[in-house]
Design brief:
Elements (H helix, E strand, L loop, with lengths): L1 H34 L6 H24 L5 H18 L2 E3 L2 E3 L1 H6 L1
Antiparallel strand pairs: 1-2
C-alpha cells in the first residue's frame, strides 16, 4: 500500500506541475508559430513538450528508487526521438525542399 501512495504522490506533486509547466511553455512557443502559419503549431509543440517531460521525469523518479538506473541515458534517447520527428517534417518535391526550418525548430 505504501508503494501505491508513493506513486500517487509522484503523480500529483511532481509530475502534474511539471506537465502543466510543459503545456504552458509549449503553448507559448507553439502560439508564436501558429500565428505565423508555420507547419508545427500549438498541438505539435505541446505534445513534444509533454512527451519529453513525462519521459524524463519518470526516468529521474526511477533513478531515485534504484541507483543503478542512469536517467541521463533517457535524455539521450529523447534527443534521438525528437531528431526523427524533425526529420519527418522535411519534404522534397521536384526541385524544392521544404520544412527544414521546422525540423531545426523541433
Amino acid at each position: 500500500m505504501e508503494f501505491l501512495l508513493n506513486e500517487i504522490d509522484f503523480l500529483l506533486y511532481r509530475l502534474l506541475p511539471e506537465c502543466l509547466t510543459a503545456i504552458l511553455c509549449g503553448f507559448i512557443v507553439g502560439y508564436g508559430r501558429e500565428i505565423r502559419h508555420k507547419p508545427a503549431g500549438i498541438r505539435t509543440i505541446i505534445l513534444i513538450c509533454i512527451g519529453c517531460t513525462i519521459y524524463s521525469s519518470v526516468g529521474f523518479y526511477l533513478a531515485e528508487k534504484n541507483p543503478a538506473i542512469d536517467p541521463t541515458r533517457n535524455i539521450g534517447q529523447i534527443a534521438t526521438g525528437i531528431g526523427f520527428l524533425g526529420a519527418g517534417t522535411i519534404i522534397k518535391s521536384e526541385k524544392k525542399v521544404t520544412g527544414v526550418t521546422t525540423a531545426a525548430f523541433i
